[in-house]
Amino acid sequence: MLETANINHEAQAKIGRLRQQIGELAAMLSTEQDSLRQRGMTTPPGTLQSLLEVRAQLHGLMHQSVEENTELDQLRALAKTTGLLGSSLEPEAVLAEVVDTAIAMIGAERAYIVLRSSDTDQLEFRIGRDLHRQPLDASRFAVSETVMRQAAETGQPVLAGDALLDPRYGIQRSIMAHGPRSVICVPLIHKGTVTGVLYADNRQVADLFGEREVALLVAFANQAAIAIENARLFARARRALAEITELKQLLDNVLTSIASGVITTDRHSQIVIFNRAAEQILGVPAERALGQPVESVLPDLSTGFRQAAQTVQLENRQQAFEIEPVLPGRGAVTLSLKLTPLKDAQGFTVGTAIVVDDLTEIRQRDATLKVVRTYLPPSLVRNIQSIDRLGLSGDEREISVIFADVRGFTAFSEQLDPERLMTIISQYLTVCTDAIQLHDGIIDKYLGDAVVGLFNTQLNPQPDHAVRAVRAALSMAYDVRALHEILPPEQRLFYGIGVDTGLAVLGNVGSPSRKEFTAIGAPFNHAKYLQENALSGEILLSPHTYRLVAEVVTVEALAPRKTSAAPVYSEIYRVTGIQRRHP
């Protein structure tokens, strides 16, 4: 190709020298013709005219040679571009190469590319560059929309020799504002569909582009459209791959973070996924499990597992069951297995998903809670994880004790038959029980018509136990009055309530076959003492309890009404109301 270019330039040089020599010869002949005419002589007719015609023909030959050489350079650039466009799959790099090549190929001053959006199907600016390969941003993108729309809608190139004088475009605001003279716009067509347009112009020279430039740019645009679409497809594929990679990482993170063991197998029962929880539950590392038959990795799960796996594969049904294998290093465990068919996009079963849950601790916890439920209300039972941490064998701690007893119950019981009596006293005991449990206390015991509640034991640790105990006593008094509204006057009874706070030893007492959780110490006895001093409906507090709740309730100091052999308190406090909270 370089050799052909050198030959063309040598031919142009020879033609130029020949034209110069003929011109010089014609000038000499013209001079000599005048001299000969003075002497009565003349040159052969038409000699000078023939020389001038030969010179004109040489001029035409020179112009044709230049045009052919220019066209050859353009075709050479077009051929070179084919390789350049295929050398990159980066969309921005391909677009820049297309624009720069188009400018150089046809002598444009600047060029733009707009592409049809895959989302909106509208033409959108993608790139603009000038002849110095400098980018032109979207804010400087100002070309005739009519030109672009015509090329995009018709799929045919648009050419304007002088856009300012062309009646089709001269009145367009962008043409008038930016003054392009020569304009050419060709569609980018890929597989019969217009995917965008390539626009180029020159603001200095009119009639710069002709049919040859149109044909050249159309041929180039056809190649460019393929390269651009390949780059766009590559970019979409790369984005899709990135999304798939991100989803896989997310799936790996999810599988790693969940507590259940997750195992998936292919249609040949070989393990494909084996998450961290499965490793921990079964004691098998993932690298040893992946790619292996599931039965060689899982413990001996008996024929029940094999039958379930066959049912999932053959009948396309989920299977769930529990097993109790013996695992190396762990001993006997309880596992829950759920087998689900794994389907592809067409709905065909291609494997099995196995979810493994370790129920060993849950079963132990259920046994623990079965014991604890005999002491606690349901709201507290849900917070207990292990009975080993409770210290039920004996623990000394500060507690608050509420002791409530029905006043006048002995005389009242003599007036009713046993069945009716039990119904009524159960209503009063229910009121007390609900009030204590409402404030997260536990029922220590029922003593006939009396109820004992404990706060801040191992089963219900509470830093504000004294406040809770007093609030439970107030709730108890309010609820008894509410109960009176539905009972006849002869069945209306009142509680006398005592609350004390102090150190006590708490734990299980009794025989191996029958145990009871209780408190042993002064607070129990002192609360009973306060209850015995309380009149119907009264709530009496010990000095220690009062100091802890002084900001919550209002009280009245009293001297004990009843004394014992060893006086307990010299002063006790009757609750008269709730302290008002100031904003």
Task: Write structural notes for this entry.
There is one protein chain. The chain is α+β, with helices and mostly antiparallel strands and 583 residues long. It has four domains: 77 residues; 151 residues, 2-Layer Sandwich (Beta-Lactamase); 101 residues, PAS domain (Beta-Lactamase), CATH 3.30.450; 189 residues, 2-Layer Sandwich (Alpha-Beta Plaits). Helices cover 46% and strands 24% of the residues. It is built from 17 helices and 20 strands. The strands form four sheets. Strands 13, 14, 15, 16, 17, 18, 19 and 20 form an eight-stranded mixed β-sheet that branches. A five-stranded antiparallel β-sheet has the order 2-1-5-4-3, sandwiched between helices. β4 and β5 form a beta hairpin. α1 packs antiparallel against α2 and α2 runs antiparallel to α3. The radius of gyration is 51 Å and the shape is elongated. The chain starts with a helix and ends in a 5-residue tail after the last strand. The relative contact order is 0.05. The N terminus is likely disordered.
In short:
By secondary structure, this protein is α+β, with helices and mostly antiparallel strands. It is 46% helix and 24% strand.
Which tags fit this structure?
Beta-Lactamase, alpha+beta, 583 residues, eight-stranded mixed beta sheet, single chain, five-stranded antiparallel beta sheet
- Cα gyration radius (Å): 51 Å
CATH topology of the largest domain: Alpha-Beta Plaits
- Under the CATH scheme, the architecture of the largest domain is 2-Layer Sandwich
Strand content: 15-25%
The helical percent reads: 40-55%
Average residue-wise pLDDT: 77
